[in-house]
Structures are given as C-alpha cells and as structure tokens.
Design a protein that fits this description.
72 residues; mainly alpha; rod-shaped
Length: 72
C-alpha cells in the first residue's frame, strides 16, 4: 500500500514542478497529492486502529479466563 502512496506522490510532485508559478505548484501538490493521500491512508488504516484499540480488552479477557465473576 505504501508503494502506491509513494508512486502517487511522485506523480503529483512531477505535476507540481511543471506548474507556471510556485504558488500553483504548491497548491497542486497539496490538493492533488497530500490532502487526498492523507484522507485515503486514514480511511484505509481505520480497521487496523480498531484492532489495536480492542487488543488490551482481549488480553484482559484471556488473563481472566473469560469469566468476569471468577474473583467474586
């Protein structure tokens, strides 16, 4: 997935370098490259973040043996 992101940024960088002014090049790089790529990587990474967030709960259940009332 990261190789696609790097390739996309390379293409957008080449597009930005061909712009007529520095401002247009910066805006091209930001709006065609960084902003959409950041959104895409954030959306694609959501399942992994959810798995990482739920891991401590699963580890606690495994240590408890899955029985919440065992200590009572």
């Amino acid at each position: 997935m990261y190789i696609v992101a790097i390739g996309w940024l390379w293409v957008v960088l080449m597009m930005a370098l061909t712009e007529t002014s520095i401002t247009a090049g910066f805006l091209t790089f930001f709006f065609y490259g960084l902003a959409p790529l950041a959104l895409f990587l954030w959306l694609v990474g959501t399942p992994a973040r959810r798995r990482r967030q739920s891991m401590p709960d699963e580890k606690a259940r495994q240590q408890n043996g899955g029985d919440a009332g065992r200590d009572e």
